Predict the 3D structure of the following.
Amino acid sequence: MTSIQPKTNDFTLPDQSLPKATNQYDKDMFMKLLLAQIANQDPMSPMEDREFIAQMAQFSSLEQMQTISKQLDSVLVDRHMASISEFSSMIGKTIDYSSESGEETTKGSGRVVSISRSDLTGYMADLEDGTSVSVYDITSIK
């Protein structure tokens, strides 16, 4: 029995490896897709000018959105630092707090030794006795 060998071409195609799976689209990937589309278009019916212009406009919009996203990230970092500075004024002071968990209410007081932040709990006042209290549960500062 004879085996069939695949036909090879003398020309090389653009790199057709798939990008790593991410949820983020960047301008490089968009440009690669556009170039692959142009390189592999049917020569008998090439892409029309308005299609090309529309895709270039999408490329430009993508770049602008990425720039805006970077600027917003910078603003969020600045805001985060401002919040830490604001809450740090409580360090060394005694606070009263009241927090509700379901039907249970916890009240207490303590001296603040540090301020911390996590994505899950937000800004927390860490007390001398090891208790962490959300800054939004503080009822008074002495």
Remarks:
- The chain has a mean pLDDT of 76.
- DSSP finds two helices and five strands in the chain.
- The helical segments are 27-39, 49-88.
